[in-house]
Design brief:
single chain; mainly alpha; 0% strand
């Protein structure tokens, strides 16, 4: 198994998640709500990590995947997406002051479970609401 190639692909996925965080960041800027700083920091951390992985683990010449590499990429992509997606929630705090709550909200969104720890969803800042909607989409 080519671990370098798997980490390269995971870097691309992490970078994509970070770029996706820029969309709700625009909502936070427009509405000047409390989600601006958590989304900006999360997008920066996520994009930086993705870029580092892409630069460190260069794309190999041979790009055919075997079954083991494909399964590893899919399994770790779900894990990485859930953990990276929980950063804006955790940095916002409030109902997500415990990391377990933020991770649950993010993983339930990316896995399309639809479960939530929130009782009053509309109380969140609009930027965080857009990020939550994107993870649940």
């Amino acid at each position: 198994m080519r671990v370098n190639y798997c980490l390269y692909v995971l870097g691309a996925i992490i970078l994509s998640i970070g770029i996706t965080m820029l969309f709700p960041l625009g909502f936070s800027i427009y509405y000047s709500d409390g989600g601006l700083l958590p989304l900006a920091i999360s997008a920066g951390i996520t994009m930086a990590l993705g870029i580092v992985l892409l630069l460190v683990f260069k794309r190999p010449q041979k790009v055919t995947l075997n079954h083991r590499e494909g399964l590893a990429i899919v399994a770790f992509a779900w894990l990485v997406a859930g953990l990276a997606g929980s950063l804006p929630f955790y940095l916002y705090g409030g109902p997500f002051s415990q990391y377990v709550n933020a991770a649950f909200e993010s993983i339930s969104g990316f896995s399309t479970t639809g479960s939530s720890i929130l009782s009053d969803i509309e109380a969140l800042p609009r930027g965080i609401l857009v990020w939550r909607s994107l993870t649940h989409w």
